[in-house]
UniProtKB/TrEMBL annotation, chain A:
The keyword Coiled coil applies. The keyword rRNA-binding does not apply. InterPro entries: Snf7_fam (IPR005024). Residues 12-39 form a coiled coil. This is Vacuolar protein sorting-associated protein 32 like 2. GO terms for cellular component: cytoplasmic side of plasma membrane; ESCRT III complex; multivesicular body. Residues 174-194 have a biased composition (Low complexity). The lineage of its organism: Eukaryota, Viridiplantae, Streptophyta, Embryophyta, Tracheophyta. Keywords: Coiled coil. One of its GO terms (biological process) is vesicle budding from membrane.
UniProtKB/TrEMBL annotation, chain B:
InterPro entries: BRO1_dom, BRO1_sf, BROX. PANTHER family: BRO1 DOMAIN-CONTAINING PROTEIN BROX (PTHR23032), ENDOSOMAL TARGETING BRO1-LIKE DOMAIN-CONTAINING PROTEIN (PTHR23032:SF20). One of its GO terms (cellular component) is endosome. It comes from Glycine max. This is BRO1 domain-containing protein. GO terms for biological process: protein transport to vacuole involved in ubiquitin-dependent protein catabolic process via the multivesicular body sorting pathway. It comes from the Eukaryota. Belongs to the BROX family. Residues 1-383 form the BRO1 domain.
């Protein structure tokens, strides 16, 4: 009776192949995240440059792009988390399968006993399983909840962030000495500087080639 | 990875008995001629596959050599010094001696088959034999055979000793170079219109380049084992294509003077060149990707795959080896394209903007020095 409720367990080879594909996609997501992080850093640098040039409008534009990239990074993080979640579930597929098999065996045994209290135990166990499944679904729903991304940026917030950047820049300048006297010129007699030839360095590829030729007795 | 072209080792010959033809003046000369005939018969039995000696006895006779190829090389190396002694007599200066030598050489009936002619691949009535009454023809064909068997020996030890394999290929290249530069140029003026391709100096030049390409291919295998950088591996593979392109260029001139030379030789060189070009560009692409130029990497791989797919070998084992390489490179290209679509979004440059391949040749032939016995021979009828 209970055997009808459970299909055949998923093929092991399919799970392994799927895990490989998930791993591949995970690597891609990580690479993309690195690229976006570089772009964020680049925009921050540009904003600093525009601030030094007193171009406030352009600096704010850079900060806007920075936030767009950060949003993308956050999204990629969620994607990675979902993939990790699925990988964990897939990796646990065998355990789940064995659990179901054990439950099927237990159910058959309990059925053979034909005792009312045992039937209640089975029902209780199934209720617990259903509860766990429900918990997992709630977690998935929470992860899948759309991010509350505001389409419009708060200009006041951006200006405040810009002032922070300006403040940091100003602090950095204040830490420098007040005046920097030019270094005294060093008198060097003309024509008396010894010229040392720079020793020629072999490239790593040339070293590899030489090692290969030696090993092959060429 | 390496295609196999066995034909240069498949020459056959007919029996020759020197002492029945050359008139000896003394017992030393007669003994020399008998020794010469005996050593040649050993070669005849081997290459004509008329040898009924068991493997154990063959090993014992050759002094413990296990390999059949090694045994054959041993026999040829024993024969050549005896034959070399006679070569100076082929360059007789006086007219009377020339007439006498010509008569003897005609009576010898120096006959060899060709493994590089079109007809030799159909084998309807057995191989066709070419008779050329010149001792240099005998020397040339024997050396050509020696080079061919050395190639087979090099392939035999490839899986166990890469250094020895490359060295043997280089030795074979040296023999073919010696043929092309020192032996066959003297023979070509004497060749009849109907001649085997093996008697042409240009064909030996081709074989020398093929052996160097194969030696470099073996060296690349060692480099790959060592984990050499992609950029250097790319240059080495393109170095192989440089050898083969040079050989193909010579082949185009040979075809004009020897029309029945087999296209099999040309196909072998072409498909080897394509394989190494594909492999070289694949390593170049991996090197470009590591430098952050995935667009160029995709362009390089796409371009070379389009090129090598235009023509595919018709038969196994060449066909399956070739298709396997294409499949591997296509998989790498698929991964690169997928990653570019997903992460980098780089533009793929046009074919004219792609970096050009750079080839490096690192193998050279080992020079061949002919050995000959220091022995004074004396013949009747020669002044």
């Amino acid at each position: 009776m209970f055997s009808r409720m459970f299909g055949k367990p998923k093929q092991e080879t399919n799970a392994v192949a799927t895990l490989d594909k998930l791993n591949e996609t995970l690597e891609m997501l990580e690479k993309k995240e690195k690229v976006l992080l570089k772009k964020v850093a680049a925009e921050v640098e540009k904003a600093k440059e525009f601030t030094r040039g007193k171009n406030k409008r352009a600096a704010i534009q850079c900060l806007k792009r920075k936030r767009l990239y950060e949003q993308q990074i956050e999204q990629l993080g969620n994607f990675q988390l979902r993939i990790h979640d699925q990988m964990i579930m897939l990796e646990g597929a065998k355990a789940t399968t064995e659990t179901v098999d054990a439950l099927r065996t237990g159910a058959a045994a309990m059925k053979a006993m034909q005792k009312a209290t045992n039937i209640d135990d089975v029902d209780k166990t199934m209720d617990e399983i259903n509860e766990q499944t429900e918990n997992m679904k709630q977690i998935q729903d929470a992860l899948s909840a759309p991010i509350g991304a505001a389409a419009d940026f708060d200009e006041d917030e951006l200006e405040a962030e810009l002032e922070e950047l300006e403040g940091a820049e100003l602090e950095e300048q204040l830490l420098q000495p007040a005046t920097t006297a030019p270094a005294a010129p060093v008198q060097v007699p003309a024509g008396q500087q010894p010229t040392r030839p720079v020793p020629a360095k072999r490239t790593p590829e040339e070293d590899e080639l030489a090692a290969l030729q030696a090993e092959m007795a060429l | 990875m390496m295609l196999h072209f066995v034909q240069p080792s498949k020459l056959k010959t007919k029996k020759m008995v020197f002492e029945d033809v050359y008139a000896s003046c003394d017992s030393t000369t007669l003994e020399h001629l008998k020794e010469l005939s005996s050593k040649r018969k050993a070669i005849e039995d081997s290459i004509n596959e008329c040898n009924f000696v068991t493997e154990a006895i063959a090993k014992e006779m050759s002094g413990g050599l296990e390999s059949r190829f090694e045994q054959d090389i041993h026999k040829i190396e024993n024969y050549l010094p005896f034959l070399e002694i006679l070569i100076p007599y082929a360059d007789a200066t006086s007219t009377i001696n020339q007439i006498q030598i010509s008569q003897w050489n005609a009576a010898l009936k120096i006959r060899w088959s060709s493994a590089l002619t079109t007809s030799s691949f159909f084998k309807i009535k057995g191989p066709k034999f070419f008779q050329i009454n010149n001792l240099r023809f005998e020397l040339g064909m024997t050396l050509f055979l020696c080079g061919g068997i050395l190639r087979e020996r090099a392939l035999e030890v490839l899986s166990t000793d890469l250094v020895q394999s490359a060295t043997i290929f280089r030795q074979a290249a040296g023999i073919y170079h010696h043929l092309a530069q020192e032996v066959l140029p003297h023979l070509e003026p004497e060749l009849p219109p109907e001649k085997p391709p093996e008697a042409l100096a240009a064909v030996s030049s081709i074989m020398s380049l093929i052996c160097l390409a194969e030696a470099q291919a073996v060296t690349i295998r060692k480099a790959e084992e060592k984990g050499t950088s992609s950029s250097l591996l790319a240059k080495l593979h393109h170095g192989v294509t440089l050898f083969l392109e040079e050989a193909i260029g010579i082949f185009h001139t040979v075809v004009t003077q020897c029309k029945d030379i087999s296209s099999r030789l040309s196909e072998f060189m072409y498909f080897c060149k394509c394989l190494h070009e594909l492999k070289g560009q694949q390593y170049l692409a991996e090197s470009l990707k590591a430098c952050g130029q995935i667009g160029a990497a995709i362009g390089v791989l796409s371009s070379v795959l389009n090129k090598v797919k235009k023509k595919i070998p018709g038969e196994d084992p060449w066909k399956s080896i070739y298709q396997k390489q294409i499949q591997d490179a296509s998989e790498v290209l698929r991964k690169f394209v997928h990653e570019n679509d997903f992460v980098w979004h780089e533009k793929i440059p046009s074919i004219y903007e792609l970096p050009l391949p750079e080839g490096t040749k690192i193998v050279t032939f080992i020079p061949y020095s002919p050995k000959r016995w220091e022995r004074q021979l004396s013949f009747k009828g020669l002044v």
